[in-house]
Structure formats: C-alpha cells, structure tokens
Design goal:
Number of helices: 8
CATH superfamily: NADH Oxidase
Radius of gyration: 18 Å
CATH class: Alpha Beta
Strand content: 15-25%
CATH architecture: 3-Layer(aba) Sandwich
Largest sheet: 5 strands, antiparallel
Number of strands: 5
Structural class: alpha+beta
Number of domains: 1
Length: 203
C-alpha cells in the first residue's frame, strides 16, 4: 500500500496543532497484539518509510538523533532468525531457540537501536528518546491499521546476537517492533490503577 502523509512542516515555520480528539479515542483503545498472532499482510516499503519518518519526530533533547533503525523484512528477518537459532542451539539452549517464534512469525520488524553519544545531554535522556521512538513506531503502525508489539528478548541483549545485527559496541537494542495483521483482535488486559499511582505535590 502507498501511504501519503500530510506535508511535513517547513523548518522554522509555525506548526498548527489543533485538537485531535480521535487521537484520544485511539489511545483509549490502544492494545498491543501478541507477536505470534501477527500474519500477512504487513506494512510495505512505503508504509515502513512513513512509519520511520513519523517515529523520528519524537522529543530529542539536543537534537542528537541518538537512535537508528534496522528494517527486518521477510527475507532479512528469516536469515537473522536462522542465525540466532543456530547460535542458541550451538550453545545447547533450546529454550532460547523456542523464544524466536515472536521474531519468526510476524511479517516485518524494525529494530530501534539506541546509539547514545558523548554529550552534555545526559545518557538517560538519550535512552529515553530511543524509548519514545519505539512507542511512536508502535502507535503509528497501529494507527495505520496493523497489529504491533514491542519486543525485547535475549537477542536484544546478547553480544553475539547484537553483532549479527551489525551493532557497534556502544549501541543497544531499544526494542524490536514487530508488525502484521492480527489473526484475532487482541483481548483487553488488566490496566494499572492510575489514581493510586498519582500524587499531587505540595511544598
């Protein structure tokens, strides 16, 4: 599918931000789909490019872009999964190999790589920005009508797995965002009590 985003605002011009109540409706209903339920069709190349363009608009203190994207299309993802499976089985770890179903089954994935740089902007803030990229990418995919899930598993942290993905020593996987069409609508899960988690500060 070809997706046409609204024109990107021109640098230095005012950005009109009218209310979008439909966004509140979306957030009220937002629910991740289990990765193992995601099937074809998934986002095509034009849609993936648009999703990444949207995700790159997250808050980014210092304008450092302390993240990058690795697209795992069906061919690339299958090859990556095969190498991970060989790695796990070579270690005698069938449990780790079994966990690859979440990577194998969805049609497409995008790895969000945190690449924090030495800067006066604290490392924590740069990593938070990478997390915001994951969230925005997840939401944008769902707003486009796909199911999506933010996954981290052993292959997000394992040194050899990260090397297979092409990460530099200082880079970390903030998350794999897997996308596709859910076989069934996801069921609502229990949500936290936001009132109990909120306090009003007073001096």
């Amino acid at each position: 599918m070809t997706i046409a985003l609204p024109p990107t605002p021109v640098f230095g011009t005012p950005v009109d931000q009218p209310p979008h109540l439909e966004v509140l409706d979306f957030l009220t209903r937002r629910r991740s789909s289990s990765a193992v339920t995601l099937a074809e069709p998934g986002p095509g190349p034009d849609e993936i490019a648009a999703l990444i363009q949207l995700a790159a608009r997250v808050p980014d203190h210092g304008k450092l872009s302390p993240w990058r994207f690795i697209i795992l299309d069906s061919e690339g993802k299958a090859a990556f999964a095969a190498k991970l499976e060989a790695l796990a089985l070579g270690r005698g770890d069938p449990r780790a190999a079994a966990k690859l179903a979440k990577l194998k089954l969805p049609p497409v994935g995008i790895a969000v790589v945190s690449r924090a740089v030495a800067h006066e902007i604290p490392l924590w803030e740069q990593e938070l920005s990478a997390g915001a990229v994951c969230t925005t990418l997840l939401y944008a995919a769902q707003a486009l009508g796909y199911g999506a899930n933010w996954i981290t598993d052993w292959y997000a942290y394992d040194a050899q797995a990260k090397a297979l993905l092409g990460l530099a020593e200082h880079e970390r996987v903030a998350g794999f965002i897997f996308m596709g069409t859910p076989k069934d609508p996801p069921m609502e899960r229990e949500r936290p009590d936001s009132v109990a988690l909120t306090t009003l500060w007073r001096p």
